[in-house]
């Protein structure tokens, strides 16, 4: 018997009450031209199978072909008009979260361009409406409502951490600040709460980079969380609120653009899905959204940040394209251009750019935590092999999610690489101009 | 069973009915989908960029034009031959043109029979490749339903029977009746099955062009 | 008479103020204006000085010493606990016993406990606090410690320790060397090694960090720190 743990207890097929009315309502609301067409014209040619990392990682088991996953779940639900059994719903749960990272790669490999990721997202929404959500995602949802971010970071904690990081960053760059809630700044820098909780140095590094580049930026004290796990949990309404909170704050502060930290799904949420979830009819965010990989590239291109030639990296470096930054936001050259400035031996993975495989940790997989860990690491086999083939010693990725997954893969598959974010890379190699050098010799301090 | 009667019926009324259902069905389906899309699929109209849509369509029409095609070259070429001959042969076959001529007094350019023969053989070969692939490749076999096989056979049947009839192999009249019948069933089935992709293909691909290209600046081929 | 600078009562027969050391006698050839100027400067200086002293005194009174003892739940920090207890007793300080449940995935709320990976729920914390209380209260020998607080958080240990130290403005962090990689093999106290947490904390902490590796190591806080 399948057992699913959700907040509030263990769910077995007996305890699930299928609310057919609710499922029908969701089905009807989404039964547009696209889904009708997609479900009916899929010719089951199997081209999508080769594109899917789950299929490749699971020894080409046809059960993992994207077309099957969608026909088995959404196709069947539509066929049965929502009248499904609890057992079936649990299977949907398993497929929608455990066998798809909604990376959208299959859409590029389908002759009809069927958007399977969207349909899997719809399956997630249906499961969510029946109370079936992976615990890891479900736990973040009340945090979004209560604290405005997924990790229950309080406003005080955010401010305190910023102060702490300013103190630390001042050892490297003089006059570094983290401006909070500054109206009229150029960029509103929105972050991943995990930076506050687990990687505060990330904030410090951002502050150093922005200070050296002379950027006008600010971190808002509300609406600062650019992540959107509600989107991956299928909680569309909440996901809309989360995205809208950020837009509203940006409008209130009157900033030029929202700057997204090195996070993949934050870009997808803020730039692409968010406007629809939040109910903007034209589907565009009310404030332009910029990903930091783009901004960092501009800094290097325009010479606002200069790389110390002596610090250029000789070790072989490869670049992991996060699905939600490269394929789903069209920003793959920027990362590579940055690497051209910083390292001498760049080796691309194959496939790369928008064809790149998901690391296996996307689509909410990492926050889903332990219960899905085994599958996540198995799915990452494709990525691990890709990395090993390049022979790189350093893997650069502008996505927190990839960062965590790659670190796990590194241990699991014994890759012997170091995973580095772009900020780390820039801070380690950039030239701090003389007028920004700290006066004392405090810069002898070494990173641990 | 009177073969002549069946043949006449299929040729006269059958053609009208099947073409009527075929064309009307497709039109109604498209209009219906358009109507539904206005409210529920705003996303289609929000990011329109025609240059992306056209490339999205074209690169997938050309054999080996997309990365996905290049990964399976034999399939790509077979699909291309299958589709091109499927449209080209019935439209420009001289025997069919004679029928157009006698019915409406208009006719298209018609090709010589030798070319038609070659193309028909090419079609049958490509259909066999598709069938073989469906059976031989585990992931495709796993995905396929009986209906997929039926549709493939239904697509091939008019060509096979037409080929047999032209070369006078087997009983002529029953073959011709099967030829007409299968072709007309095929026409009727098209609007209501996955074969509607003959029209819908352009819409879904255009949408993908908007969605990936217009919106995300990512090529989808 | 009263001192013109600090207002202290100057005993008769004295030529200077015992509090602010102002000489009440005027130098013979000093003009009136110079004297007044000197007096003005002395007054201003005294004001500033007084403010400093008062603040410092007030702070000294207000500020209770706090000692943050960080435990890794293994015997390796027992010596550190003993030292922390002694120090707390000696300085009449509040002892905060602090443990961080480590998150393995920096993205999810899951933490590592003795039972394996689990979610950081209230029950987990309650259980942890209870076992911390049982364990450490039993370990205190002799006189009781004035004030003890037991706290737990989840996250990356060194980050949470520093966050706590900053928030509470503690006077000292006391911890063991934290180098257990494999808890099953036990801990070789004979060869203590610097663990990652101890290293990061000692590098980045806002206050002194004491890493205690031997049973007889004693700590002290500077008077009035």
List the domain count of chain C as a whole number: 2
Oligomer: heterotrimer
User: How many β strands of chain B by DSSP?
Assistant: 0
Q: Could you tell me the CATH topology label of the largest domain in chain C.
A: Rossmann fold
- CATH topology (level 3) name of chain B: Fumarate Reductase Cytochrome B subunit
Beta-strand portion of chain B reads under 5%
Question: What's the arrangement of secondary structure elements?
Answer:
The complex is a heterotrimer of chains A (448), B (221) and C (225).
Chain A: E1 3-6, E2 9-12, H1 20-30, H2 33-41, H3 53-57, H4 66-79, H5 86-98, H6 105-109, H7 116-129, H8 135-147, H9 155-169, E3 187-190, H10 193-197, H11 200-213, E4 217-218, H12 229-233, H13 236-253, E5 257-260, H14 264-277, E6 289-291, H15 292-301, E7 317-319, H16 333-342, H17 373-379, H18 381-390, E8 394-396, H19 400-412, E9 418-420, H20 422-429
Parallel strand pairs in A: 3-4, 3-5, 5-6, 7-8, 8-9
Antiparallel strand pairs in A: 1-2
Helix pairs in contact in A: 1-7, 4-5, 4-7, 5-7, 9-11, 11-20, 13-14, 15-16
Chain B: H1 3-40, H2 42-46, H3 50-61, H4 67-71, H5 73-92, H6 94-104, H7 113-136, H8 138-143, H9 146-166, H10 172-189, H11 197-215
Helix pairs in contact in B: 1-10, 3-11, 5-7, 7-9, 9-10
Chain C: H1 32-62, E1 66-71, H2 78-91, E2 94-102, E3 110-113, E4 116-119, H3 122-139, E5 147-155, H4 157-168, E6 172-175, H5 196-204, E7 209-211
Parallel strand pairs in C: 1-2, 1-6, 2-5, 6-7
Antiparallel strand pairs in C: 3-4
Helix pairs in contact in C: 4-5
Describe this structure in words.
The complex is a heterotrimer of chains A (448), B (221) and C (225). Chain A is an alpha/beta fold and 448 residues long. Helix content of chain A is 48%, strand content 7%. The model of chain A is unreliable at 441-448 (pLDDT under 50). With 221 residues, chain B is mainly α. Chain B has a single domain (3-215), classed as Fumarate Reductase Cytochrome B subunit (Up-down Bundle). Helix content of chain B is 81%, strand content 0%. The N and C termini of chain B lie far apart (52 Å). The mean pLDDT of chain B is 90. By secondary structure, chain C is of the alpha/beta class. Chain C has 2 domains: 1-62, no CATH class; 66-211, 3-Layer(aba) Sandwich (Rossmann fold). Chain C is 37% helix and 17% strand. Chain C is built from 5 helices and 7 strands; from the N terminus they run αβαβββαβαβαβ. In chain C, the strands form 2 sheets. Chain C has a 5-stranded parallel sheet with strand order 5-2-1-6-7, sandwiched between helices. A two-stranded antiparallel ribbon of chain C has the order 3-4. In chain C, a hairpin with a 2-residue loop joins strand 3 and strand 4. In chain C, helix 4 (157-168) runs parallel beside helix 5 (196-204). Residues 182-192 of chain C have low confidence and may be disordered. Chains in contact: A-B, A-C. The interface between A and B is large, with 50 and 52 residues.
């Amino acid at each position: 018997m399948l057992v699913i743990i959700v907040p509030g207890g263990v769910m077995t097929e007996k305890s699930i009450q299928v609310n057919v009315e609710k499922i029908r309502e969701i089905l009807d609301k989404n039964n547009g031209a696209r889904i009708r067409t997609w479900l009916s014209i899929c010719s089951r040619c199997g081209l999508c199978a080769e594109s899917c990392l789950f299929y490749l990682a699971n020894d080409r088991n046809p059960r993992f072909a994207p077309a099957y996953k969608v026909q088995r779940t959404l196709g069947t639900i539509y066929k049965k008009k929502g009248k499904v059994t609890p057992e079936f719903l649990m299977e949907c749960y398993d497929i929608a979260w455990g066998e798809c990272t909604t990376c959208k790669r299959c859409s590029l490999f389908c002759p009809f361009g069927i958007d399977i990721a969207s349909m899997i997202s719809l399956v997630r929404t249906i499961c969510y409406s029946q109370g079936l959500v992976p615990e890891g995602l479900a736990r973040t949802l009340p945090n979004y409502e209560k604290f405005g971010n997924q990790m229950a970071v309080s406003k005080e904690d955010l401010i305190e951490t910023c102060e702490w990081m300013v103190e630390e960053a001042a050892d490297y760059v003089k006059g570094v600040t983290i401006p909070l809630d500054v109206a009229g700044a150029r960029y509103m820098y929105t972050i991943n709460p995990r930076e506050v909780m687990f990687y505060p140095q990330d904030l410090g590094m951002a502050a150093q980079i922005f200070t050296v580049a002379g950027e006008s930026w600010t971190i808002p004290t509300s609406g600062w969380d650019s992540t959107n796990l509600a989107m991956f949990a299928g909680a569309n309404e909440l996901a809309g609120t989360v995205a809208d909170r950020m837009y509203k704050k940006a409008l209130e502060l009157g900033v030029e653009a929202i700057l997204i930290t090195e996070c993949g799904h934050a870009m997808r949420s803020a730039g692409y899905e968010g406007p629809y979830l939040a109910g903007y009819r034209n589907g565009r965010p009310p404030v332009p959204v910029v990903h930091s990989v783009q901004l960092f590239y501009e800094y290097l291109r325009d010479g606002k940040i200069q790389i110390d030639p002596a610090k250029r990296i000789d070790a072989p470096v490869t670049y992991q394209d996060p699905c939600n930054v490269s394929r789903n936001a069209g920003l793959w050259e920027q990362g590579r251009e940055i690497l051209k400035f910083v390292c001498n031996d760049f080796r691309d993975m194959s496939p790369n750019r928008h064809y790149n495989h998901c690391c296996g940790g996307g689509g909410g997989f990492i926050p889903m935590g332990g219960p899905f860990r085994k599958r996540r690491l198995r799915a990452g086999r494709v990525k691990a092999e890709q990395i090993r083939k390049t022979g790189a010693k350093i893997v650069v990725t502008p996505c927190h999610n990839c960062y965590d997954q790659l670190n796990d893969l590194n241990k699991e598959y014994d890759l012997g690489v170091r995973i580095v974010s772009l900020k780390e890379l820039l801070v380690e190699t950039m030239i701090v101009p003389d007028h920004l050098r700290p006066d004392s010799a405090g810069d002898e301090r070494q990173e641990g | 069973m009177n073969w002549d009667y069946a043949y006449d019926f299929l040729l006269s009324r059958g053609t009208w009915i099947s073409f009527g259902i075929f064309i009307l069905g497709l039109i109604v389906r498209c209009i219906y989908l358009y109507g539904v899309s206005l409210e529920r699929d705003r996303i289609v109209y929000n990011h329109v960029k025609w240059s992306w849509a056209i490339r999205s369509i074209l690169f997938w029409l050309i054999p080996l034009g997309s990365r996905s095609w290049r990964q399976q070259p034999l399939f790509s070429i077979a699909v291309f031959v299958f589709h091109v001959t499927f449209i080209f042969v019935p439209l420009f076959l001289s025997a069919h043109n004679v029928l157009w001529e006698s019915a409406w007094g208009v006719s298209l350019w018609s090709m010589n029979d030798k070319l038609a023969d070659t193309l028909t053989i090419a079609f049958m070969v490509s259909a066999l490749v598709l069938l073989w692939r469906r059976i031989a490749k585990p992931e495709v076999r796993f995905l396929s339903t009986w209906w997929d096989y039926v549709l493939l056979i239904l697509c091939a049947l008019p060509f096979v029977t037409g080929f047999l009839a032209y070369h006078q192999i087997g009983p002529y009249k029953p073959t011709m009746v099967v030829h007409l019948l299968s072709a007309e069933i095929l026409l009727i089935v098209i609007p209501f099955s996955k074969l509607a992709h003959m029209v819908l293909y352009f819409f879904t691909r255009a949408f993908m062009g908007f969605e990936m290209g217009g919106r995300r600046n990512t090529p989808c081929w | 008479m009263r001192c013109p600078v600090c207002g202290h009562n100057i005993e008769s027969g004295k030529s200077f103020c015992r509090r602010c050391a102002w000489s009440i006698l005027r130098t013979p050839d000093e003009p009136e204006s110079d004297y007044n100027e000197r007096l003005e400067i002395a007054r201003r200086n005294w004001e500033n000085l007084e403010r400093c002293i008062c603040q410092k005194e007030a702070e000294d009174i207000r500020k209770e010493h706090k000692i943050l003892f960080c435990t890794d739940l293994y015997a390796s920090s027992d010596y550190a606990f003993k030292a922390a207890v002694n120090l707390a007793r000696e300085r009449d300080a509040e002892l905060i016993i602090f443990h961080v449940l480590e998150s393995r995935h920096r993205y999810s709320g899951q933490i590592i406990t003795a039972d394996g990976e689990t979610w950081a729920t209230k029950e987990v914390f309650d259980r942890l606090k209870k076992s911390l209380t049982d364990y450490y209260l039993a370990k205190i020998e002799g006189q009781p410690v004035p004030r003890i607080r037991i706290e737990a958080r989840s996250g990356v240990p060194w980050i949470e320790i520093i966050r706590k130290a900053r928030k509470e403005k503690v006077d000292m962090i006391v911890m063991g060397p934290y180098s257990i990689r494999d808890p099953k093999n036990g801990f070789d106290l004979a060869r203590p090694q610097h663990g990652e947490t101890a290293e990061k904390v000692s590098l980045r902490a806002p206050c002194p960090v004491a890493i205690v590796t031997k049973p007889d190591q004693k700590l002290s806080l500077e008077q009035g720190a």
